[in-house]
């Protein structure tokens, strides 16, 4: 890893492994150290925000503290090789400028939230409704967020945008992909980050996309040209849970979230054994998604652990991600005004970040419904 990534990763790991019960760092810096850290470029001292709340959520999800911390501790994982890191960089992804890491065991992802209006919305407006919803809806498709880290101090690195001041830790529904041998008989993993594509996307729609590079356009939402093949019961439960989750998001004024879909299949895969249908407000007891075939638990399936296709040849996982853009923030209002001004010249309609939360929910639900094909 580059020096920047190494120091950011180490500061995150240190915070997870060494926080007090209240989430604050175990060591209180001296006056001299407090002055010096203002000049740090990459290393930050983090606190765990609402440590009590996230601890309660992890308990509800069956995540033991020892197992959770072990994912961030290479010594516990048995890696004695010098230079082995607990977090592996995944690069910058999307338009938000977020950086991603995954734990060495691939169980969790760490995502930075560098934009103030996004982490402020999540911390002050959405966190409590999210926690209440996740406790009341064990089968929720909202991605499981297990911790929120924020810097305890300012620094030159934060001011220059070199070191993100906030990170979330969330479950990795691609868990198990890296543990499969790359061979012709190995299961095939595919994933899509899906949003309604009927909105105005300047990179795609202005001058037919000629003004944007291919690299820029590649960060737009994916297209899924197939179907999610489900039994009638599983399709009905999928629709019901998506409606519950998006109602929360709409009520909190969130837009621009996406459905992250994973499909696991194998060449000449035999028809899988019977799997019970999804049931409302039930979920697998698995604290993390299964890492080995058949990648879906035999009992109490959920979209985070794996749902069997109607023909028994594919496993689907899904999660709703990126619900940090709220329409009532000053930044979102400014973007809305900018797009409305452009539409006076070239009427392209709203962007996914400038539409209202109810309208976005309607298009999102329609998108999800169109992807599902019921087969018995």
3D architecture notes:
The chain is α+β, with helices and mostly antiparallel strands and 376 residues long. Helices cover 32% and strands 18% of the residues. The chain has eleven helices and 14 strands. A six-stranded antiparallel beta sheet has the order 1-5-6-4-3-2. Strands 7-10-12-11 form a four-stranded antiparallel beta sheet, with no helix packed on it. A hairpin with a 5-residue loop joins strand 11 (307-308) and strand 12. Helix 9 (232-251) runs antiparallel to helix 11 (357-371). The longest helix is centred in the middle third of the chain and has 21 residues, at 116-136. It is globular, with a radius of gyration of 21 Å. The termini are far apart. The model is unreliable at 268-274 and 293-298 (pLDDT under 50).
- The average pLDDT score comes to 83
For the largest beta-sheet, the strand count, sense and barrel status come to: 6 strands, antiparallel
Class of secondary structure makeup: alpha+beta
**Dominant shape:** globular
Proportion of beta-strand residues: 15-25%
SSE arrangement, N to C: HHEHHEEEHEHEEHHEHEEEEEHHE
- Which regions contain 5 or more consecutive residues with pLDDT less than 50? 268-274, 293-298
Alpha-carbon Rg, integer: 21 Å
- Total strands: the figure is 14
- Could you tell me how far the N terminus lies from the C terminus, measured between alpha carbons in angstroms? 49 Å
By DSSP (H or I, 4+ residues per run), the number of helices equals 11
